[in-house]
Design a protein that fits this description.
The complex is a heterodimer of chains A (191) and B (84). With 191 residues, chain A is mainly α. Helices cover 68% and strands 0% of the residues of chain A. Chain A is built from nine helices and no strands. In chain A, helix 8 packs across helix 9. With 84 residues, chain B is an all-alpha fold. Classes of the chains: A mainly alpha (191), B mainly alpha (84). At the A-B interface, helix 2, helix 3, helix 5, helix 6 and helix 7 of A face helix 1, helix 3 and helix 4 of B.
Chain lengths: 191, 84
């Protein structure tokens, strides 16, 4: 079914069209929610909320937009809401994972190349798992920005708008998140 | 131009994200590459920073390549909510 036809049927509150929407986008949205939320039940809840919200607000879906982009934005929002409701502990500091510099501005510990390329790392289940676990170790406000910018490929401006922070704050958090992730991986991968 | 002092490792590392986005001014980009030319440690830092971005993206998206079906029980649960 063409997207425009699907949208007009959704607007007419066609039950079959809703089921088509579910079957088309469910797996994709569940994968996004699982990246943000560490627990399967929360991920499924976020997806459920996404479809219910989408169906209710289909009249606000703009002509010319893509359903996948619109749903992606809703599921990211739903996942972030769920994360906020689960947050119980004060966030860990990221400073310990950032590079250290001497008074003259040189790196305290020299950086060296890693024993594996990105391709090699992704080929092996062991290193894929290492990368995923390392991302999970990042303080949440940094992990979320890394996910939104580097993994979900949202723009700086869109990320800032969704999180209610400035584009500059997004850039700072992204750079720190990547540096912290690099530090964690460096411990395992330096030559 | 070469009389200008070299930027420090700290400044270079602060600039990395903007460098990769092509967001440095011409002068900043030239200071950046000039420092890289004399500093193997920063060359390694830049290389491993780039590997970090790619490995993060690909490790988290790797599962996406699996053609997993949508869970039928979740589809049915959502359809039921709609019926209410």
């Amino acid at each position: 079914m063409e997207e425009a036809v699907l949208v007009s049927k959704l607007r007419a509150r066609d039950e079959k069209a809703f089921e088509t929407l579910l079957r088309l986008y469910m797996a994709q949205l569940l994968r996004v929610a699982r990246r943000f939320l560490k627990n399967e039940e929360d991920a499924r809840d976020a997806v459920q909320e996404t479809f219910v919200a989408a169906f209710r607000s289909i009249d606000r879906f703009k002509e010319g937009s893509k359903l996948s982009t619109w749903l992606h934005r809703i599921v990211v929002n739903a996942s972030l809401m769920k994360l906020r409701s689960r947050r119980r502990h004060p966030e860990e500091e990221i400073d310990a994972l950032l590079p250290r510099f001497a008074a003259d501005g040189h790196q305290v510990e020299d950086s060296v190349d890693w024993k594996m390329s990105a391709e090699d790392m992704v080929q092996r289940e062991e290193t894929r798992e290492l990368v995923r676990k390392s991302i999970d170790r990042l303080p949440e406000s940094y992990r979320v920005v890394l996910l939104m910018r580097d993994i979900e490929e949202m723009s700086t401006e869109e990320t800032a708008e969704v999180l209610g922070i400035t584009p500059t704050a997004v850039k700072v958090r992204l750079h720190r998140a990547r540096q912290a992730l690099r530090t964690v991986l460096d411990k395992e991968l330096r030559r | 131009m070469s009389a200008r002092p070299y930027i420090t490792c700290r400044e270079l590392i602060d600039f990395i994200a903007d460098y990769l986005e092509g967001a440095l001014t011409q002068r900043q980009a030239s200071d950046f590459t000039r420092h890289l030319g004399i500093c193997p440690s920063c060359r390694a830092y830049l290389a491993t920073y780039e590997v970090t971005i790619r490995a993060g993206k690909e490790a988290l998206r790797y599962d996406d390549s699996a053609n997993e079906d949508a869970p039928e029980d979740l589809i049915q649960a959502i359809l039921k909510i709609r019926d209410r």
